């Protein structure tokens, strides 16, 4: 650091008192600053990422394949098609017999898909077996899929699955939404 030299007397012959130097050594203060920064970095708790749990059934290699297919009542399920541009559709029809009039457009709001799921569960013949089938299209985004999974938690739907969309459903989705995708 630069010091200012103060003369003890000037040219007129008068003697002045010697003033103390105002030099401050910053080295210990810098060391203290780094020690405090290090201390707070090591003692802070980092926030843990929020992750939604997804439970998958265990694979049992010893289990034999089921020979007969159980009869599925479509009133005990709802199929949700996650489309592009924030569009969301649902139906309760057989995927091979689905037409554009049976595909109902809804939204991600409380009055939208949440009410549709709850109403479908109330119409189900066996509400304990009610299943939600989520079918994302190639146009859908990951955010839209997560929003639908959030609705599963909110509506307390414990039985749901994510499956590929059938080619017939893609054709009906494209007809209803006016888009074309490369899923075929």
Give an account of the 3D structure.
With 184 residues, the protein is an alpha/beta fold. 18% of the residues are buried. The radius of gyration is 35 Å and the shape is elongated. It has helices spanning 27-43, 110-123, 142-154, 167-177; strands spanning 77-82, 88-91, 104-106, 131-136, 160-162. The longest helix is centred in the N-terminal third of the chain and has 17 residues, at 27-43. The chain contains four helices and five strands; from the N terminus they run αβββαβαβα. The chain starts with 26 loop residues before the first helix and ends in a 7-residue tail after the last helix. The protein has a five-stranded mixed β-sheet with strand order 3-2-1-4-5, with helices on one face. The protein has a domain at 74-177.
């Amino acid at each position: 650091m630069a010091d200012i030299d103060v003369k003890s007397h000037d040219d007129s012959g008068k003697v002045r008192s010697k003033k103390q130097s105002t030099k401050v050594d910053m080295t210990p203060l810098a060391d203290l600053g780094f020690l405090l920064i290090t201390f707070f970095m090591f003692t802070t708790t980092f926030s843990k990422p929020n992750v939604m749990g997804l439970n998958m059934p265990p694979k049992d290699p010893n289990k034999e394949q089921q020979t007969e297919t159980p009869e599925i009542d479509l009133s005990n399920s709802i199929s949700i098609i996650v489309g592009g541009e924030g569009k969301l559709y649902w139906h309760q029809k057989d995927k091979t017999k689905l037409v554009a009039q049976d595909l109902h457009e809804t939204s991600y709001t409380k009055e939208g898909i949440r009410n549709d799921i709850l109403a479908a569960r109330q119409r189900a013949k066996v509400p304990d077996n009610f299943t939600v089938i989520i079918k994302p299209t190639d146009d859908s985004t990951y955010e839209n899929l997560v929003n639908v999974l959030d609705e599963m938690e909110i509506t307390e739907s414990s039985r749901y699955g994510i499956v590929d969309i059938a080619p017939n459903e893609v054709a009906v989705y494209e007809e209803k939404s006016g888009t074309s995708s490369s899923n075929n």
